[in-house]
Amino acid sequence: MKLGRVVGVVWASRKVKEMDGCRMYILQPVSSEGVSTELPLVAADPKGLAAPGDTVVYVTSTDATQAFDSGYAPVNASIVELVDGIS
Amino acid sequence: MIFARVIGTVVSSQKDPNLSGKKLLLCREVDHEGKPLKSYHVAVDAVQAGEGSFVLLSYGSSARMTEETKNAPIDAVIMAIVDDVQITHWSGDE
Q: Please, what are the domains in chain A?
């Protein structure tokens, strides 16, 4: 799991039915100080946790599919936690 | 998921039986603004994308997780057609 910041929104009205009602965001991977660490990526937000500007925890690879209740969706990254603060 | 632009159709008459009836599209990876990047992918179309469409492509084993691609020997699927991308909080250092 990694830290990221929501820097953009992806609008897609036509998508596979496994993704129905699921928003997608552009995430900038960041360090705990908020410094960019990797290239941005697109992540799904199956639980509706995030909004633009938020810091989140996301998972990548096949594990990202487990963030969906069905455990079944064609995603490579999913937002799984909204970060309130890091101490 | 990565952004891609559909640039062509791949036609094939001899293929794995689990691929029959699936439309294969040639896609070029692009950035969030649609600017072409280096890599190309052949992807199964699960959303009736057409040539020129700006799409989202999922790759790896996750690509099999749609009704269209279940149990098929594939590693890339077009899972959404992108209407718009809004950058709201770019920090400017990427």
A: 2-82 (2.40.50.220)
Q: What is the ipTM, given to two decimal places? A: 0.90
Min Cα–Cα distance to chain A from B5, Å: 14
Asked if the model's pLDDT at residue A37 lies above 80, the reply is: yes
- Using one digit for the tens of pLDDT, what is the confidence trace for B14-41? 999 999 999 999 999 999 999 999 999 9
Q: Is residue B90 part of a domain?
A: no
Reading phi first (left if > 0) and then psi (alpha if -120 to 50, else beta), residue B92 is in: left
Q: To which H or E segment does residue B56 belong?
A: strand B54-59
- Tell me if B68 sits within 8 A of B43, measured CB to CB: no
Question: Out of B32, B79, B93, whose CB is closest to A74?
Answer: B79
CB A36 within 8 A of CB A58: no
The C-alpha atoms of residue B31 and residue B27 are separated, in whole angstroms, by 13
pTM of the model: 0.92
- pLDDT of residue B92 exceeding 90, the answer is no
